[in-house]
Design goal:
Shape: extended
Largest sheet: 3 strands, antiparallel
Strand content: 15-25%
Strand order of the largest sheet: 1-2-3
Number of helices: 5
Number of strands: 3
Radius of gyration: 17 Å
Distance between the termini: 37 Å
Amino acid sequence: MNNILAGADIDITSIQLEAEDLQKLMTFVTKVTQEGISVSYVLSESLDKLTITLDKALFDQVMTLLPVLSKLIPSDSDNEMIALIQPILEQIPSVWAKTTKFDISLKLEK
């Protein structure tokens, strides 16, 4: 965790993660590491096009981590982009609760 935060140029001394926060993160990381990430894919008959899709089920799990992830954002930053992230993170759960379908796809072509 320290290396990830250092790579993101985040000062870990200002982060207030509790034991339960770390447990949530590690549970998610362990699950993904052991079970992988569920994706669907479609390969064209000519083998020149591939579409890989992540569905809502994965993001449902990620959304439960938002309160923990929001604690990783420094509250005392002067960076305007960082200042925009916190309000967005606060609004996502109510929007996500109304979301019935969500897919992210990557389309690859030769």
